[in-house]
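Quick one:
INPUT:
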């Protein structure tokens, strides 16, 4: 019998099919499969802190320089840290797997 027709859905190959023993593909007895560690993004680690309630704290923007042209109220409100929005939090937590 020749190769099957186009619409039959069967595949035709001129080489015989070879079945390999399944023993080759099993892991050795007593050895575990090594899994890769997730690595922490060091730039994120420097800039963010995770609280006990899984909130992310960050330094408020606009405090590093050019403070003479800012109002006193603006400078006062930008002191310290701020909590990151809930929309951005999962993205940062994904880069900090051990946090």
């Amino acid at each position: 019998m020749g190769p099957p027709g186009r619409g039959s859905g069967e595949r035709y190959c001129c080489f015989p099919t070879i079945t390999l023993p399944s023993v080759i593909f099993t892991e050795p007895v007593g050895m575990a499969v090594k899994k890769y560690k997730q690595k922490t993004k060091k730039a994120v680690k420097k800039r963010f802190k995770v609280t006990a309630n899984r909130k992310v704290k960050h330094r408020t923007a606009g405090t590093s320089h050019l403070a003479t042209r800012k109002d006193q109220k603006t400078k006062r409100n930008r002191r310290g840290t701020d909590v990151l929005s809930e929309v951005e939090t999962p993205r940062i937590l994904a880069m900090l797997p051990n946090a």
